[in-house]
Amino acid sequence: MRSELYIDGAWTPSSNGETFEVINPATEEVIHHIAAATAGDVDAAVKAARRAFDTDGWPQKTGTERARYLRAIANGIRARQAEIARLEVLDNGKPFPEADWDIADAAGCFDFYAGLAEELDGNPEETIALTDDRFTSRAVKEPIGVAGAIIPWNYPLLMASWKVAPALAAGCTVVLKPAEVTSLTALELAAIADDVGLPPGVLNVVTGAGSVAGQAIIDHNQVDKLAFTGSGPVGSKIMAAAARDIKRVSLELGGKSPFVVFDDAEIDKAVEWILFGIFWNQGQVCSATSRVLVQAGIYEKLLARLIEETNRITIGNGLDEGVLLGPLVSKKQHDQVVAAIAAARAAGATVACGGTRPEGFDKGYYLRPTILTDVPLDSAAWVEEIFGPVVCLRPFETEDEAIALANDSRFGLAAAVMSKDDARAERVATAFRAGIVWINCSQPTFTEAPWGGYKESGIGRELGRWGLDNYLEVKQITRYVSEDPWGWYIK
Ligand code: NAD
Question: Which of 295, 345, 453, 479 is 20 to 30 A from 212, alpha carbon to alpha carbon?
Fold first, then answer.
């Protein structure tokens, strides 16, 4: 396990010697200490990234050259997949098979953006048809510069990859700050980058508090672009900081995503996707479908099956065989989710199952998967992101009612619909005001497809070619090709 900052191609302790604890959420044990970066350390990282961008030639490398580094990083991740997945479990608590999936996806993300980096060589210029034939014009894409990437704790290495891979592919250099509760695998990413010979300063990893290291990144006037995933309130701070010197900004914030199940759906298939939509990663997923709307005709039957299957989920240490639900990531997150359930009860909701610590777990931030019914529409449980294994279930009568309920949210990250009637599913998918829509499933995510939200769920799109555009400027180059003088001042 690494414990130092990675700045300008070198491992270094924090300049004031401070560290913070790494706690295993399954046991509550302190398993490690990591350097807490100061504003001065962040400044050193930004300056290294600046130099790598401005004078050391990273943006001038061909896409194919940059792709070689990205593929080497992908291979480096894959070569250590099981070991890194284990670190993710120790840090985040998620079940090992989920962590293993994440790490494979992270490697795949580097491969995918290697492919797009190569395409930048083949298709760098777009000719623009002008109505005035005295000129020709073309548009070229160029890297934005130094990117500050700030990520959350729910998918530690994967969120790092979603930002670092497209940024490096585009020719940007990066200062990455992982979440303070899950920094281990971001440091391994730095180690892999170092092993493959990524030039110094191209990727820097500064661990530490959001209020210190994160704030220093967003305030730094030599950072050109901020890419953030996390909570709405911090997203607002980032946008405000970006506004001061017009940094480019992309935000992926929270959600309260609906899942509409019509009465022609097969109950078991619906139950399986509802479970996957809210209990995967302990419900700590920005796109979790946490508001489930079920057509009245099948509501009681579906609820009964859902309770039955929810109570069957094996809870435990993510490293243990067969576990499907691990502990929440931290005491803070656990206590917040428990408080949200208590508030839901106080507002009149019924706890149909779960809501308590599972039996036999004295240690660890465990919580039974929880189903809430009778949740008032104006209660926090229905309106606010809980970010835990808690789903609200509600019956509806008509398609119009379902759409209105689904869209009645200040968020718009994701939405799902299940029906055997394809035309109806398409109608509802079109009516959803959300950036990610699933038909007959919930949550599957593909590196090739755009990811991001409407409304307060964020700005911009990650993944796919949209994710690369996040790190590119567009320049027009226009040439006067006529032999005739311009003839405005000089006739
Ligand atoms: P957060 O927004 O506080 O933290 C996310 C990242 O931002 C972390 O790296 C953190 O250190 C950093 N940060 C915090 N303050 C900062 C500042 N002033 N300047 C710059 N960076 C700063 O999220 P959290 O505390 O990890 O979780 C709180 C809530 O956020 C959760 O309960 C959940 O609702 C939401 N969340 C959403 C996502 C998502 O994917 N959309 C992920 C994690 C958490």
Answer: 453
CATH number of 258-439: 3.40.309.10
Query: In this predicted model, what pLDDT tens digit does every residue of 295-330 receive, in sequence order?
Result: 999 999 999 999 999 999 999 999 999 999 999 999
Phi and psi at residue 436, in whole multiples of 5°? Answer: -130, 120
Ligand 1 close to Cβ of residue 154 (< 6 A): yes
pLDDT in tens, 241-294: 999 999 999 999 999 999 999 999 999 999 999 999 999 999 999 999 999 999
For 324, list phi and psi in degrees, rounded to 5.
Answer: -115, -15
The residue whose C-alpha atom lies closest to atom 42 belonging to ligand 1 is: 230
Ligand 1 within 6 A of 149 CB? no
Regarding the beta carbon of 286 and ligand 1, being less than 6 Å apart is answered: yes
Please tell me the distance between residue 234's alpha carbon and the centre of ligand 1 in angstroms.
6
Report how far ligand 1's centroid is from the alpha carbon of 117 (Å).
30
Q: d(Cα 64, Cα 52) in Å, to the nearest integer?
A: 18
Domain boundaries, the chain: 5-253+457-477, 258-439
What are the φ and ψ backbone dihedral angles of 139, each rounded to 5 degrees?
Answer: -115, 130
CA 98 to chain centre: 15
Q: Do residues 412 and 434 lie in contact, with contact meaning Cβ atoms separated by under 8 Å?
A: yes
> Is 332 exposed, middle or buried (CB count within 10 Å of its CB: 0-12, 13-18, 19+)?
exposed
Edge-first strand order for the sheet with 472-480 is 125-128, 135-143, 472-480
The C-alpha atoms of residue 418 and residue 440 are separated, in whole angstroms, by 4
* Ligand 1 touching residue 200 (CB < 6 A): no
Q: In sequence order, which residues have a C-beta less than 8 Å from that of residue 70 and are 6 or more positions away?
A: 110, 111, 113, 114, 117, 165, 168, 169
State the CB neighbour count (10 A cutoff) for residue 379: 18
Identify the residue whose tokens are 């005491």. Answer: 331
CA 208 to ligand 1: nearest atom: 11
Active site residues: 252, 286
Q: What is the pLDDT of residues 101-151, one digit of tens each?
A: 999 999 999 999 999 999 999 766 789 999 999 999 999 999 999 999 999
pTM reported for the whole predicted model: 0.97
Task: Give which of 13, 21, 20 is closest to 44, Cα–Cα.
Answer: 13
